[in-house]
Amino acid sequence: MPYSAQFKDHLAHPRNVGQLPDATAVADEKNPVCGDRLRLSLIIKDNRIETARYLAYGCPPTLVCGSVLTELIIGKTTVEARKLTRADLLNAIGGLPSRKHHAASLAIETLKSALQDLQNPVKPGQG
Amino acid sequence: MAKRRVYLDNSATTPVDPRVAAAMSRAVVETFGNASSVHGFGQQARAAVDRARREVGGLIGAKQNEIVFTSGGTEANNLAIRGLCEAAASHGRHVITSAIEHPSVAGVCKELEKRGWDVTRLPVYENGIVRVEDVNNALRPDTVLITIMLANNEIGTVQPIREIGGLVREKKNLWLHTDAVQAAGRLPLNVDELGCDLLTMSAHKLYAPKGIGALYVRRGVRLHGQNVGGHQERERRAGTENVPGIVAFGEAAKLAREELEQRSAHDRMLRDKFEAQVRSRIKDVVMNGDREQRLGHLSNISFRFIEGEGLLINLDLEGVAVSTGSACSSGTLEPSPVIRALGVNDELARGSIRFSFGKDNTEDDVDYAVEVLSQAVERLRALSPLTLVT
Known about the structure:
The complex is a heterodimer of chains A (about 130) and B (about 400). Chain A contains five helices and three strands, in the order αβββαααα. Chain A has about 130 residues and is an alpha+beta fold. The longest helix of chain A has 16 residues, at about 100-115. Chain B is α/β, with parallel strands linked by helices. Chain B contains twelve helices and 14 strands. In chain B, the strands form four sheets. Chain B has a seven-stranded mixed sheet with strand order 2-8-7-6-5-3-4, sandwiched between helices. In chain B, strands 9-10-14 form a three-stranded antiparallel sheet. In chain B, β12 (about 325-330) and β13 form a beta hairpin. In chain B, α3 (about 75-90) packs parallel to α4 and α8 packs across α12. The model of chain B has no long low-confidence stretch (mean pLDDT about 95). Classes of the chains: A alpha+beta (about 130), B alpha/beta (about 400). Chains A and B meet through α1, β2, β3 and α2 of A and α9, α11 and α12 of B.
């Protein structure tokens, strides 16, 4: 299965890259088997994700999943964001070969972990 | 900067030379006879095959009747290793190979192990080269075959086949095979100087089409045919000859011999210019493999903090075609086994890219490739959490 046009577009022009110095939630997750890594920084105000930034290392699907994830979650309430699934992310990318689905799993896990982090607010300068 | 299409993957395959395509087209239309037929049409095809056999043999200093045409390098490697081992099994069941062989050699060696053979895989060191003393130390009374490539397909390192050939020459019931798919047409080769008994070539690495290769079999070396059911290729490879493919290979071999010096100088000039520009414009790069003992057209570079496939696709989107030996599938990390054999860490192995130049590349191609490469590396590094001080 070849990569979709939107996949290639996100790879060449990743959205929302970077970190947030004033992040209210941060998560950094790693796939222990392949070493792919995703770091997500969020600013959440009144239970709504105002801004999201990401950094990623790994195969192209991991890089693209990070980019697409930030687009999906900005503007969503934390309740809505918690409901996002791997399938939602895969749909937004235009599909991925099944052997690359782990990239979408890592992105969703990182999101869940960041939202979990809300109970443990980030100290300034850690985002 | 205007977008271009730049092909820097000449180690994967080369564009077909128009002169080779012309010779092949003529053969397709005019030389359609079956080379085994006794009539005039058949004899015309036989003569074309014989001419090509002389040219292919001439590229490596072999005699015409020492060349067996196959469907490509993989089949030639299979025929060489299986064929020799089956014929020599009464003398012993031990094979010596290296850790950086092409899958078509490594795979056959694995199969031999399943059938009860012993296989010794020699390491390469940081420079990507096998040591002759390691070969010598690995020799056993029951060793019948050494199969070590002439030049590596990912990092281009040239192995000491001539010295290994010297070891083999002194021993009875020991044969040497070398996979010269990357080297043929790029290095001057002579089978007598190398001291090898079997040597693999593939036409599509030297500006001919895919689907045709050859195995050099030194006169007197016994080989069990793997394709049976016909007398073609002196019983070594049954099946009607691929006359147009063989004619194309013959023409490509002739041109490679005539133009070897100028092609090598051209490729090396482009490669060296490329590496100098990469070094000056991109930080945190590691050039893989020995700096001297390597093919002149190839450069293998690891870019720290990023992964190879993402870089490959970014370059492809800008029209630049390259290769990476690493692959990630089902969440399993598969960094290039060749780069790992150099003893580098997973991150560097995953970030390795092969750039391979050819006779049709220009200096403008190099300038363009370096420009888009430096932009792509910068973009991917901006994305990488590995650049963070943690």
